[in-house]
Amino acid sequence: MSIPARYFFTQEEQLQITQAIRDAESDTSGEVRVHVENSCKGDVLDRAAYIFKQLNIHRTKLRNGVLFYLSVHDHKFAILGDIGINLKVPPDFWEGIKETMAAKFREGDFAPGLTEGILQAGKHLKIHFPCQKDDVNELGDEISFGDLGAKKI
């Protein structure tokens, strides 16, 4: 029997990932979210886009949010950046981070792989979206788990 998404990462690993989100968001106005669920029926990018909207990542002031989406039972994951970021980074930017993460995932190092991906994204967020003096944390840093509803077609 497979481990439910909620328990895929240990408490220690969840703290490590949450700290990586905070570190990635330091000195930047960019926002990072992580969502983990059991399964993804269909295309992983479509599902990630749906979750992106459900988590209101598209509502950041500068459209500079990033979603790291994982479907643990299906062994699928995606990284989605909002339009503000995608206009500033090279076209293959997310693919490079995804490849780094996939190498770790193949070794069974899921928390370190996710952490490394988050920190890489944070480095670029700091370059393109430096922290503003009136910056607020627009999105929570906690990991979200589970099915956020069926995708409407």
Key traits:
153 residues; alpha/beta; Diaminopimelate Epimerase, Chain A, domain 1; four-stranded mixed β-sheet; 5 helices; 41% helix
Number of helices: 5
Low-confidence stretches are none
Helix coverage percent: 40-55%
**What's the mean pLDDT score?**
88
Alpha-carbon Rg, integer? 15 Å
CATH topology name, in short, is Diaminopimelate Epimerase, Chain A, domain 1
Sequence of strands across the biggest β-sheet: 3-2-1-4
Could you name the CATH class?
Answer: Alpha Beta
The CA-CA distance between the termini, in Å, is: 30 Å
**Could you say which structural class the secondary elements and strand pairing correspond to?**
alpha/beta
Largest sheet: 4 strands, mixed
Count of individual domains: 1
Which secondary structure elements does this structure contain, and how are they paired or packed?
Layout: H1 11-25, E1 31-37, H2 44-54, E2 65-71, E3 76-81, H3 83-86, H4 93-106, H5 110-128, E4 144-145
Parallel strand pairs: 1-2, 1-4
Antiparallel strand pairs: 2-3
